[in-house]
């Protein structure tokens, strides 16, 4: 968990306000008994979490694609190739919807606007050096040409909700449940 108490407070306020502003239909599915607190969410969303990302083309046609998501400081961070279609879409239209789902056990849904963390030829985000260190540690120092090849984003959500019907079934990302024990153990990367 990398979140400060202030970041957890901000995330909890967003989760609460998002659920209260949701439709009656959504609130019949996601309610206070079938969701997670901000603190618990940050304990579950560790390591790499596969995201489904929705962008829009210039013709207003929806597009969905996948990305490695990292939930850091209470927000999704993800990267892609600088020449990818989603990078072009986000440069022109920075609105994004993101979903992370684990079967029927967890659904994290967010809508917001992306911030480019390492713009090509531009000033990086103030926290980019710390984030870059995290990504290099996770993927490997030489995994990419970090300046030229990849662009990273932070989703600044204005709406976010979590579906989790049974918290006891949730293990942190990057863990596996050991068969027959119901307990999580770390998943090796090598």
TrEMBL record:
InterPro entries named among the record's database cross-references: Split_barrel_FMN-bd
Gene3D superfamilies: Electron Transport, Fmn-binding Protein, Chain A
Domain of life the protein comes from: Bacteria
Name of the protein in its database record: Uncharacterized protein
Organism expressing this protein natively: Streptomyces pini
């Amino acid at each position: 968990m990398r979140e400060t108490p202030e970041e957890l407070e901000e995330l909890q306020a967003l989760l609460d306000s998002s659920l209260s502003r949701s439709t009656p239909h959504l609130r019949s599915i996601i309610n206070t008994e079938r969701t997670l607190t901000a603190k618990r969410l940050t304990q579950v969303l560790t390591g790499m979490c596969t995201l489904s990302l929705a962008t829009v083309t210039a013709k207003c046609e929806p597009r969905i694609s996948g990305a490695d998501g990292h939930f850091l400081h209470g927000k999704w961070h993800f990267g892609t190739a600088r020449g990818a279609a989603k990078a072009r879409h986000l440069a022109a239209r920075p609105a994004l919807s993101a979903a992370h789902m684990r079967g029927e056990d967890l659904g994290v849904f967010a809508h917001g606007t992306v911030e480019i963390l390492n713009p090509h030829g531009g000033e990086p985000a103030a926290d980019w050096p710390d984030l870059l260190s995290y990504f290099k540690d996770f993927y490997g120092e030489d995994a990419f040409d970090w300046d030229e090849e990849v662009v990273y984003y932070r989703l600044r959500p204005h709406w976010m909700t979590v579906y989790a019907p049974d918290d006891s079934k949730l293990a942190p990302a990057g863990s596996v449940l050991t068969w027959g024990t119901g307990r999580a153990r770390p998943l090796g990367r090598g």
